[in-house]
Amino acid sequence: MAPFGFATGSAPRKPVLLVAESEESIQDTYDAEKWPLAQGALSEVTLRSTGSLRTVRTVAKLRDTDAEALKREVDVMKSLSHPNILELLEVFEDAKSVYLVTEHCTGGTVLRRLTSEHRFEEMQASPLMQQLFRAVRHMHERKLCHRGLQMQGLILATSGELGANTALKVSGFNYACEYDPDQPLREACGPVGYMAPEVIDKEYSNPCDLWSCGVIMFYMLCGYLPFTGSSDKEVMRESHRGAFFFHPKSWGNVSDCAKDLIRALLKRRPVQRYTAVQALHHEWFRGPKKHMDAAALKALGGDAKKIEEHPTDVSTSDLGSLDLELDADPAVEADVPGPLVVHSSARPVLLSETPA
Length: 356
Hints:
This is Protein kinase domain-containing protein. This protein is an alpha+beta fold. It folds into two domains: 26-103, Phosphorylase Kinase, domain 1 (2-Layer Sandwich), CATH 3.30.200; 108-285, Transferase(Phosphotransferase) domain 1 (Transferase(Phosphotransferase), domain 1, Orthogonal Bundle). It contains eleven helices and 13 strands. It has helices at residues 67-79, 110-117, 122-141, 197-200, 207-222, 232-241, 248-251, 256-265, 276-280, 294-299, 304-309, and strands at residues 30-32, 42-47, 53-60, 88-93, 97-103, 144-145, 154-156, 168-170, 177-178, 244-246, 323-325, 341-343, 348-350. The protein has a five-stranded antiparallel sheet, covered by helices on one side. It has a two-stranded antiparallel ribbon with strand order 6-9. Strands 7-8 form a two-stranded antiparallel sheet. The longest helix has 20 residues, at 122-141. It starts with 29 loop residues before the first strand and ends in a 6-residue tail after the last strand. The model is unreliable at 1-12, 290-324 and 326-356 (pLDDT under 50).
């Protein structure tokens, strides 16, 4: 069998172009600290003509590389133009690699920032979620489903403190595809922990992206995922069940308004789940500190000025018992069907087996 991306024959031939539109070399256009660029990694390059910085993702052309998936990813990214979606600027290709050149972002991933801060205040999370919903709305208007939304795929355009002017970029389009509202998608794919129940059931459409948004918002505000387990299989079972908790220790300082939006996104039935448009019209985006619950207001003594200065500095002593969110769905306790191949952020897992 010929190596991936090459023509067969006795004499050496030029590599077959998979996604690039010309044979122009990336080294003729960009300068890098070191060539060749590391495969499977992100590299910083400089556009020789202007000195502008760009980021390059280098994809190795191997036998097991999914050429169709790579082409689909490139086509999807080329079709999208939105300030909250990472822009694909150019594509180059040589005998060994495909080079995806994107705009240069310096803020790192949202996950990295969350790891350093443990959790986000509502005033930090609100602008990020608003931009995420705008990106999802843009994709869905074009009948494109992301299917892989996760914290690792959200990029901050610049470094510095999070605030209203922090720009968010959605990336990670390796699972993205077109969809027909009248024809369900049936490929169970996406990062474990972010997949909607209907994706696990292999019958779903674009509402699965809003479930992922709900998981992301939950993660931002408390610092952990709503569906967890000791293995990928257990996480999938919990995601399929759809039960999640607002534990007072972690959620006592979070407004009821924020929790209400999360509930609307993590509806187990897709038809009951918020769309991106509905999410953008939610009152939480009119100012999280205006929607603090009664316990939070009492903890701050009802002082509006104090609330303005310390919007989440509240006590959890009066918040009562554990808040369990569980849809009244007769199938909510159903076991995860199998066997099922799950594409996690680490590796595919067959749910009929015990993951390593």
